[in-house]
């Protein structure tokens, strides 16, 4: 996910640089403008820059509601990708798990009994 965000940022940065280059070329080739037009253009550029910075901040640091919505959206998309087992597969998996639980339970009981017997034999105590 971080790599994806990094790629998005680098693409955005490249686009911004390209826009700046085009604007500089356009400004160099454009005829002289009046001071009022220049002031208005600078004011518009400043507004656009502030708006872009605000949007970028909102993307980087979303509020709690936005984070919850993003999380729930991610959960929903992941749940759509899940491949659920059929009824027959679910039964066979359940039987296999129960059988393994019984086998491991018996193995642990035998090992525990052996350890207890060894301790009793070693210490000579009866429990």
List the total number of helices. 4
Nearest-integer average pLDDT: 85
The best one-word shape is elongated
Structural class: mainly alpha
Sheet with the most strands, sense and barrel status: none
| Integer-rounded radius of gyration | 34 Å
Order of helices and strands: HHHH
Secondary structure: number of strands: 0
Unreliable spans are none
Question: Residue share in helices?
Answer: over 70%
End-to-end separation in angstroms reads 58 Å
Strand content: under 5%
In short:
The chain is mostly helical. The protein has helices at residues 2-29, 35-60, 64-81, 87-123. The mean pLDDT is 85.
Write a structural description.
This protein is mostly helical and 127 residues long. It has a domain at 86-127. The chain contains 4 helices and no strands. The chain has helices at residues 2-29, 35-60, 64-81, 87-123. The protein is elongated.
Characteristics:
127 residues, single chain, 86% helix, mainly alpha
Task: Present the secondary structure layout.
Blueprint: H1 2-29, H2 35-60, H3 64-81, H4 87-123
